[in-house]
Amino acid sequence: MKANMKKCLMLGIAFILLFTAGNITKPVYAAGQPVAAISVPYWWIPQNISGVSTAKWSTSANAVYDYSTYFKPYSGWPAIDYTNSTGHASGQDRVLRQAQVKIYVLDSSTGSAMSGKTVTLSSSLGSNAYVKNPTSSTASDGYTTGYIEFYGVSSFTITATVDGYSYSTTVTPGSSTYYNRFLLTEYNSALWSRSGSDTAFKADVCLQGSGYDDRSSVLKWYRAVVSGNTCTGITEGSATTASGTSPTEYRTMAVDSPYITRKNYYDSSWYRGRVSFAGLSATSDSGVRTAEDSGGAINGYHIDIYIGFKTISQFSTAHPSLPTDTGRYFVTGTYLSTLRTVLQ
User: Whole-angstrom Cα distance, residue 124 to residue 170?
Assistant: First the structure.
């Protein structure tokens, strides 16, 4: 009696899982037919193909990884044709994402997990995505894992086929975590009172990009005049980021655009990525930054966040939870969304 009750309970749970996971294409099952439930427990942003298996800072390259137009999580994965992908369409965010797809296969007659089953995956994205099928058959618990890599944020359908039977579910990309950590550095606006002289203030403005002469007889903003990567002087005027916004504490960060989107190359518009960084959240700080600025030394997995008039010491004191490694801040980023409107 207990065995039968357990079997019925397992079947009931299995079918609840299946119908909540997505739209199943075969509601009537043959005896012993394998049934597959599909889920996406993780959304990732894969690492650059030129990267190594560490997130350590490379001082020689001034970046964790060298620039590459192709983003792939593992060596040997084909590049996706971005030009013809859905991510290229107007309104998409050109962010390459990866879905970790877990497939659970069970016997429709007994509700028991089925091991040794080969599962193949496909998606409604077609050639706009790359599917990495599970490299092994289902384990003793009935599970196996595959991956789908794609551009964009549109919903799509994933289909799992086992023993000739196909089952599908529709998924919508969610917040996506970067495989690799980012080096976090800080930049601020110079203050004349902190610099102490006109010469030092000019040098500080050149270094930081902007500064405020806070002497009561002046009270003016200045910004660096840059030619190439060289500061040739300073001029009166408020600071402006590379994407045309005013740098704002707790919001602005400088990025390498292929790693965190700052501009959409499809229509030459500013599509600024919003990323939440682990450990950055603190009093008055949500931990979320928007990609608005750039910098000659900001390459690869490196972000430079704007801290207003704070010193680096003041910033560090206010953010005691930031993870460090070899004396530097390394943070995990989760891509939240893309801003397509001009910030003021």
Answer: 9
